[in-house]
Amino acid sequence: MVYEIKTQGKFKYIEEGEGEPLVLLHGLFGAMSNFGGLIDYFRNYNKVVVPLLPLFDLNILDTSVAGLAKYVHRFVETMGYKNVHLLGNSLGGHVGLVYLLKHPEAPVKSLTLTGSSGLFENGMGETYPKRGDYEYIRKKTELTFYDPAMATKELVDEVFDITTNRLKVIKIITLAKSAIRHNLGEELREIKIPTLLVWGLNDTVTPPMVGEEFKKLIPNSELHFIDKCGHAPMMERPEEFNKILHPFLDSLK
């Protein structure tokens, strides 16, 4: 399904359905399309919102996890949302955590993290490709998933296009380094809202032990694993993901 991208001031976002806002934050190579299975399902129960994070549009000083968290804060304030259910995948989870830690007064009712960075991640790291290495990008994209067939040509092309743009490459590396530097650790104990952790058992980017560490550190949290699933469970196993998320959200009504 194709969704209308709305604009308010400098914010671009999808907003579908009615009810308490379910705000979805995508990762470093993520896009709104990553959340198709969630939008289609939850638009019947919630107002599903996907802000387009300005990964490549912030000035270089604000190109950081904290800069993106500031953007999310301004977005939620501008839209006037209340009783927000915040969900983040990969870097999006990390951004959500920093937003909540910097703004404990934020109108957020629950948090869902899936394959989140913030404690540990295997990123592109030091082996970031020379621009133009399509085969490398294809293999790296396949590693995001348990089933390499999930890395469709369309998805690989999207990532490849980013890596052929010199300025975008600089921004991606800057964000990745910011994520590694901005390690949260013990700070996570300050997050008191109900938190759902959904991890792919076959996630090689943020392995299952990362989910277990989040569970130890975030007081009011529960952890679920999905088998035969990699770093983006909501994309690779949307039905199983929704079966875990729906009762969690229902329990908070």
Automatic annotation (TrEMBL):
It holds the Pfam family Abhydrolase_6. The keyword Iron does not apply. SUPFAM superfamilies: alpha/beta-Hydrolases (SSF53474). InterPro entries: AB_hydrolase_1 (IPR000073), AB_hydrolase_fold (IPR029058), AB_hydrolase_sf (IPR050266). Residues 22-243 form the AB hydrolase-1 domain. One of its GO terms (molecular function) is hydrolase activity. The keyword Nucleus does not apply. PANTHER family: MONOACYLGLYCEROL LIPASE, MONOACYLGLYCEROL LIPASE ABHD6. This is Alpha/beta hydrolase. It comes from Chitinophaga rhizophila.
